[in-house]
Structure formats: structure tokens, C-alpha cells
Amino acid sequence: MTAVEIGPTTAAPAGTDGVIVLSGLTKVYEPTPRWMRVMARTHVRANVTALDGVDLTVRAGQICAIVGPNGAGKTTLFRIIVGLTTATTGTGRVLGLDVDRDTEQVRQVVGWMPSEDRSLLMRATCRENLHLHGRLQGMSRRAITERIPEVLAKVNLSGQIDSVVAGLSAGMKARLRLARALLPGPRVLILDEPTGAVDPIAAHELLGLITDLVRRERLAVLISSHRLEEIEALRSQTLLLDRGRVKYVGDLDTLREQWERPQLELVFDSAATADRAAAALLAHGLAATADGHAVRCGLRPAEGAGRVLSALGPTAGEVRHVREIPMPLRDLIARAYRQDAPEGIR
Ligand SMILES: Nc1ncnc2c1ncn2[C@@H]1O[C@H](COP(=O)(O)OP(=O)(O)OP(=O)(O)O)[C@@H](O)[C@H]1O
Known about the structure:
Blueprint: E1 18-29, E2 48-59, E3 63-67, H1 74-81, E4 89-94, E5 97-98, H2 103-109, E6 110-113, H3 126-136, H4 141-154, H5 170-182, E7 188-192, H6 200-217, E8 220-224, H7 228-234, E9 237-242, E10 245-251, H8 252-259, E11 263-267, H9 271-283, E12 288-291, E13 294-298, H10 305-312, E14 321-325, H11 329-338
Parallel strand pairs: 3-8, 3-9, 6-7, 7-8
Antiparallel strand pairs: 1-2, 1-4, 4-5, 9-10, 11-13, 11-14, 12-13
Bound molecules: adenosine-5'-triphosphate (ATP).
Adenosine-5'-triphosphate (ATP) binds at residues 29, 44, 48, 50, 68, 70-76.
Organism: Micromonospora zhanjiangensis
Keywords: Antibiotic resistance, ATP-binding, Nucleotide-binding, Transport
Domain ABC transporter: 36-268
């Protein structure tokens, strides 16, 4: 996992009201009506529950990362907040505005960065793209003209104001999409896979910009990403979604405390000794696997290196190195999804 230093976001002081408050949000997509099926490229045959009772509060100055496998409901959640679809039940509020009833006002305070470049006009310049977007948002020409240099400066694209979008790198296009989301001066940012199409260095730069903006402007941010190392680097709140249900919401340190099962790695002089050691550990009921000269052994809560070394018996004297390996975030999240019994190791 890459060690990306992006820095923590400032947690909002306790008691601050939520900027985004979702309560019991449920979305059920209904089957495509019969008369529409001929026209629809794909159609839904049965009810699909995309969100199932989601509760979430995001405060000013907080980033909340929405994590979940394909189809978990991330985009549906975002689409409800920006008024592109409505919830079946439950409520969503942004700065006290109802996302269903006050759609127009909500759009004025929410900056939405969709996951793809398709919404950019490739043959137009950055300035022209931002101008068009501002007009579509209902901004006055004057306000747009004033804001364009400001938002381009925020995303380090001042030098590209009159560059044609097609000639920009993927990272620059992503920053332009961010600038577009910032155009109306939003209090909330919704970033759907912002780094999806960009290389890791450009992604790091983009996330750095986002965390800086959050700190300076105290924005409330929802972000989705399939890149777990990015979520880890953001050190944000995290909402784990699984088929529309919330599996976990909180910070990653607490997630670790709850689900982490570190492993011990024991290194021997030979593969044969490692095999013997793994067999001894297995015989004592420990989860161990040999890999070349090394053995990895999962630890249960309250188990330490002592338990492992005593299970090794005489082979303990042949251990050359021992180190504890923290559980990768990917495995940690997988455990949370499986809702393993905390004392068990699988
Ligand atoms: N317009 C729609 N009509 C019917 N079902 C839909 C529609 N949009 C999404 N779904 C279904 O709702 C569920 C959640 O989809 P959603 O796109 O919100 O998930 P996601 O987490 O954003 O997935 P991905 O990571 O692939 O973008 C999926 O089962 C999807 O097939």
C-alpha cells in the first residue's frame, strides 16, 4: 500500500450541526414499465433496493468517504442529494434544506463532481466550459467572469484558462471538473470517484487539493473511491455500504480497533523449518501458513507473540526475525463486511 501523506481533515467540533444529514434513506428502483421496455436499452425486471435505511451526518470541515463494491448504492446516494433522483423513504437535508423539496436551493450549495469527463466539452477551453456550466447553474455572467480565475487558481489551473480541454492531461481534466464543482461557491462537495481516471501522482495532487480546500473553506465533503489507499490517506470518516446497507460508519482507527487482527511474520533459515513451524502452530489451533522461509500467523484478540512462540516449542529457537504486520485496509474492510465474530479468525 502506498504511503500517501495527505493529512487529516479537521474534525468538526462536537455539537456542530450536520451540514449533510441523511435519515433512514431508502431507494427502491421499480421495474421498468412494460410500455418503456422497447425503448430502454436495459430494463429492470424486479425491484432493486439500492439504499436501505442509510443514516449519515457530515459536518462542516469533514470528509466522509463512501466505500462499497460495485452496486453498493454510492452513486444513488449522491444522486439523491443533488436531486437527480428521489428517495423512496427517509429524508435528506443539506444545510437544513430538504433534498427532495428544495432541489434548486440545494443545487446552489452543493458542488457535484461526476466520475467521468464526458460532461466536459473537449473542444472548448477551460474558461468556456466553466462559463457554460455557470450559466446552466443559473449564475449571472458577471459572477461567472469573476469566479472563473478564482476557481482555476484553487485547482492550480490558472495557466490553462484558455487551453482546449482535449489537450489537457487526465489529472488536469479532473482538476477542471473540481473547479467546475467549486464554481458556485458551494458549502458541500460531492465527489464521485474523483481520481478514477488519473494516475497515482495526479490523484495524490488532487486529493491534496481537496483536503486543503476542506480545511480552508470548511466544506462538508462526500467522496467515493475504489482506491482504498486513498481513503486511508484522507484519514476521513468512512461509510461502508453493502447492497444499500450501512455496515460501518466512523473513522478508520476505530474500524481497526474493532476488526483488526494483526499477523506475526516469523522468518527461519530454511523452508523446511518454516514448514515444521507452521505445522506446530496449526497443531496448537493457530492460523498459520508457510511461504518460503517465512510463516505468517494470525493473532486473536489478546493473543501476543508469547502464545505463538510457546506453540512453536523447540522450533522457537530457530526463529531469525519476528515482525507484526498490520492488517491491510482491504482485509479489514472485508472482515467488517463479513461481520465476523470479533474473537474469530477466518
Ligand atoms: N436507474 C436505475 N434503475 C434501476 N436500478 C438501478 C438504477 N441505478 C442503479 N441501479 C441499481 O441500484 C444498485 C446501486 O447502484 P449504484 O450505481 O448506486 O451503485 P454504486 O455503488 O455507485 O456502484 P458502482 O461502484 O458500480 O458505481 C445496483 O444494483 C444498480 O444496478
